[in-house]
Amino acid sequence: MKFTELEKIGKGKITKLSRDAEIKELVTDTRNISIRSGVLFFAIEGINHDGHEFVQEAYDKGVRCFVVEKEIKLPDDVNILEVRHSLSVMQWIVTYHRLLFTYPVIGITGSNGKTIVKEWLAQLLDYKFKIVKSPKSYNSQLGVPLSVWQMSDQHNLGIFEAGISERGEMARLEPMIKPTLGVFTNIGEAHNAGFESLQQKANEKAQLFAGCQKVIYSAAYPEIEQALESVFSADTELIPWTVERQEKGVVEMIIGEQILSLRLKFSDPASIENSLQCAAVLHVMGFGVEMIQTRLDTLSSVKMRLEMKQAVNRSYVIDDTYNNDLYGLEVALDFLHRQNQKSKKTVILSDLYQTGLSSDALYQRIDDLMRNLNIHRLIGVGTEISEARGLFHTQAEFFASTDAFLSSDFQVQDEIVLVKGARDFQFERVVERLEYKAHGTIMEINMESLTNNLNYYRARLRPEVKLMVMVKAFAYGGGNFEIANLLQFHKVDYLGVAYTDEAVELRKSGIHLPIMIMNASPDSFRFLKEYNLEPEIYSLEQLFDFNDFFEGEEQVPAIHIKLETGMNRLGFKSEELKRLVEVLKLHKRIKVKSIFSHLAGSEDPRHRDFTLKQGRVFEEMSDLVMKALWYKPLRHLVNTAGIDNYKAFHFDMVRLGIGLYGFDPVMSEEQKLSIVSTLKAHVSQVKHIKEGESVGYGRLGFAKRDMKIAIVPIGYADGYARAFGNGVGKMSIAGQWVPTIGNVCMDMTMLDVSAVEIKTGDEVVVFGESPTIQDLASWVGTIPYEILTSISQRVKRTYVSG
C-alpha cells in the first residue's frame, strides 16, 4: 500500500508529500519502531496521552510518514496525512488490507477465555498451518488493527480475538477481522459497565460473526444462543456444544449429532471449557476424534504476561517462554529496554516461526531491533537462527539446541536477561537454571495494573497539576526501584521517599527524577548534593543545621518546606513562619522547591470540616511564605484520598501514595482500582490428622474431626502476622477460601483444607483478587498500608506486564 492511497482510504488530506512510500508497518508508539523505512506513525490523541507530542521522536528514529489530527511542524522530507480521527483511519486501512487475503480466519470473542482459546488453537494447529494471530491479548480498538496488519501471503490461517467494553465497538472490529469461523467463548459480568444487560452485551459481541459461515458456542449460555439466533440468517450455521458426562478427567461432549469422548489435561472449570471450545473447532475443521485427542495431549499452559524475576548473580530474568512470534518479540524487547535495574541487557532467543518473512529479512529485522534498543548480547538457539549468524552485529553466540546451550558454560552477572522461545524449545528449563530460588513464596507485582491506577489519578488532575508519587517503604512493599523505573518511564514529576538511603539507592540504580526526602537527618546531608536530592525541612533547628552544613557553598540542594496545619506531626507552626522567612531572605542561595502540608483525615467524611479548615490554614500560611520569596515554589497538600475528595486543594501538585498500589479508602465498589500485588505460595505438604490431635506451637489448633491440613511456606518472618492464626486468616486454593489452623509459625502456616481437593505443589493465594488486602486488614483490625509494607524483603518479587 502506497502513502498516496491513504488519502482516499482515510478520508483525509495530504498536507505534505516529499515522495510516495510503500507502507510496511503501522506504529502508534515510538518505542515500537523497529524498521528503518516504510513506517507509518499514527498520532492518536487520548484522555491521558497525545501522540502528537511524539512525532519529533518518531522523525528522529527515521519515520517519514505520519497520520495526524492537527498541524505539526516537521522538516520537508516527510509525508503527512491530516485526518479527523487517526485511530479510525488506521482501522479503515487495515479493513482494506484484510480484503487482500482469502484464507480462513477464526474470530474469537466472549467475556473470558479469548486469549487462552486463541493461543491453544495456535498450539493445536501450528503443525499443519502457517498461522498469523493476535499477539498476547491484543483485542481492543487499537490492538485488533495492529494484529490484522500482520496478515501476509506467507500465512494460510488467521486467529484473532476481539474484546469490547461498550456498544458500537464490535461494528468497527468486525470488518477488520472478517472471520469465516466464529468462536463465542462465554458471556459473564466482565466489562459490564458499558451495557444495560448481559443480553445486550451478548448481542453486541455477536456482531463479530456477521459474515461468518459457522459459529461455535457453548449451549450453557442462553444469552449467547438468543443473541446468535436473533442476529443471524439461515446462511450462518450455528454449532452449539454441550457436556453430556464428565468424570475422572474424561469428558463426553455433544456437538451436532456427534459425541466426542475426550481425555483432558486440565481439571479446573475454565480450562475444561476452553479445551472443549478448541476441540469443537478442530471437529468443525474436519479433524477426527483420535487426532483431536492427540493434539489435546500436546496442550501446555499459557503464560499470559511477561514476568520479570530475580535471577542468580544480582541479575533479573524476563520469562516470556510460551511462544515466539515476531510482534510478541518486539513487545518483549521494548519491555526489556525499559528496565534500568542493570545496564547490561541479554536476549536468549530461539528460532521464530510463521512470521511471514524470509529468513534473511526476519533476522535482519531482529538485528535492527536489538541495535536500536541497545541490546548487549544475543544467545541464539536453533538451526535457523544459527545459520543466520552472519546477519547479526550484536555480540552473539549460537547453539543448535536447548540441550547444547544448557551444557555450555553460559553465565549471567549483573544483567537483565530476556528469555524468549518457541514452545518446542522448552525454554522454561533455561528460566529454571537462571532463576534465584531464595524463597518459595512470591509477591507478584502487576505493572500494567499499576499503570492503570496511575492513569486513573492522572485523569483527575488539571493539565497543569504535577504529580508526586510516593515510593517510600520499599514502594509500599512492591520493590522501590522496579516501580520507580516504571514511574520514570511514565514521566511522573516527582518521587517521594521517607529516608535518604532510599533515595541514594534509587539514584545508584539509574533513577533521575526529582526526589523529595521526607525525613532527612543531618548526618545524611552529605549525600544530598552528591546525588541531587531534595530534603523536606520541617523545623528551624533542621534549617539551621542544613545551612551550616552547606555554609560557604554557592550552590546548595533545593529544599521543601513542611507546614504544620493540624496533623501535629512534622512541620513549621504558624508562629515560626516569621523567623523562617527571615532565614530564607538572608540565605538566598537556599531554593525552596515546594511548600506543603499533610491532611489528617481526607479519607473520612466525618472530618470534612476539619480538612477544609486545614486547606484554608495551608493556603494562608503558604501565601505568607511565598510573598516573602522572589520566585514561586510549588504547593501541594492532598494525598491519595484527597485527589478525588478535595479537588479545590490540588494547588500545583498532588501526592499519590496507596492509590497507586490498588487501594483508595474513599472509592465505592464500582470505582475499584486494579489489583497490583498478589502474594502467592505453594503447598509444601498435605497430611491427614485424627480428631483431637493438635496443630502447631502452643497446641492452640485442635482437630475437631478427622481432617486434612496443608502446610504453606509463609510465616510471620515473611510478614504474615501471628494474628492471622487459629482461623482468623484465610487463604485461597482453587478459588475456595480455607482457614488457618493453629498458630502462624515464623516460616510456615497450616491451613484446614478438608473441604478441597489439593496436592503438594498446588498454588495458594494469600492475598490478591480474593482474598483482598482489605480482607486481610479487616480480619486483624489494621489498614492495607500495614499489610503491604509488612511483607518481608526475603519474599521474592516477580514483576509481570500485560
TrEMBL record:
<dbReference type="InterPro" id="IPR013221">
    <property type="entry name" value="Mur_ligase_cen"/>
</dbReference>
<dbReference type="InterPro" id="IPR011079">
    <property type="entry name" value="Ala_racemase_C"/>
</dbReference>
<dbReference type="InterPro" id="IPR001608">
    <property type="entry name" value="Ala_racemase_N"/>
</dbReference>
<dbReference type="Pfam" id="PF01168">
    <property type="entry name" value="Ala_racemase_N"/>
</dbReference>
<feature type="modified residue" description="N6-(pyridoxal phosphate)lysine">
    <location>
        <position position="472"/>
    </location>
</feature>
<dbReference type="InterPro" id="IPR000821">
    <property type="entry name" value="Ala_racemase"/>
</dbReference>
<keyword id="KW-0436">Ligase</keyword>
<dbReference type="InterPro" id="IPR009006">
    <property type="entry name" value="Ala_racemase/Decarboxylase_C"/>
</dbReference>
<feature type="active site" description="Proton acceptor; specific for D-alanine">
    <location>
        <position position="472"/>
    </location>
</feature>
<feature type="binding site">
    <location>
        <position position="746"/>
    </location>
    <ligand>
        <name>substrate</name>
    </ligand>
</feature>
<dbReference type="GO" id="GO:0005524">
    <property type="term" value="F:ATP binding"/>
</dbReference>
<dbReference type="InterPro" id="IPR000713">
    <property type="entry name" value="Mur_ligase_N"/>
</dbReference>
<dbReference type="Pfam" id="PF00842">
    <property type="entry name" value="Ala_racemase_C"/>
</dbReference>
<dbReference type="GO" id="GO:0008784">
    <property type="term" value="F:alanine racemase activity"/>
</dbReference>
<protein>
    <recommendedName>
        <fullName>Alanine racemase</fullName>
        <ecNumber>5.1.1.1</ecNumber>
    </recommendedName>
</protein>
<dbReference type="InterPro" id="IPR029066">
    <property type="entry name" value="PLP-binding_barrel"/>
</dbReference>
<dbReference type="GO" id="GO:0005829">
    <property type="term" value="C:cytosol"/>
</dbReference>
<dbReference type="GO" id="GO:0016881">
    <property type="term" value="F:acid-amino acid ligase activity"/>
</dbReference>
<dbReference type="GO" id="GO:0030632">
    <property type="term" value="P:D-alanine biosynthetic process"/>
</dbReference>
<dbReference type="InterPro" id="IPR035911">
    <property type="entry name" value="MurE/MurF_N"/>
</dbReference>
<comment type="function">
    <text>Catalyzes the interconversion of L-alanine and D-alanine. May also act on other amino acids.</text>
</comment>
<keyword id="KW-0663">Pyridoxal phosphate</keyword>
<feature type="domain" description="Alanine racemase C-terminal">
    <location>
        <begin position="676"/>
        <end position="800"/>
    </location>
</feature>
<dbReference type="Pfam" id="PF01225">
    <property type="entry name" value="Mur_ligase"/>
</dbReference>
<dbReference type="GO" id="GO:0030170">
    <property type="term" value="F:pyridoxal phosphate binding"/>
</dbReference>
<feature type="active site" description="Proton acceptor; specific for L-alanine">
    <location>
        <position position="697"/>
    </location>
</feature>
<dbReference type="InterPro" id="IPR036565">
    <property type="entry name" value="Mur-like_cat_sf"/>
</dbReference>
<feature type="binding site">
    <location>
        <position position="569"/>
    </location>
    <ligand>
        <name>substrate</name>
    </ligand>
</feature>
<comment type="pathway">
    <text>Amino-acid biosynthesis; D-alanine biosynthesis; D-alanine from L-alanine: step 1/1.</text>
</comment>
<dbReference type="Pfam" id="PF08245">
    <property type="entry name" value="Mur_ligase_M"/>
</dbReference>
<dbReference type="InterPro" id="IPR036615">
    <property type="entry name" value="Mur_ligase_C_dom_sf"/>
</dbReference>
<keyword id="KW-0413">Isomerase</keyword>
<comment type="similarity">
    <text>Belongs to the alanine racemase family.</text>
</comment>
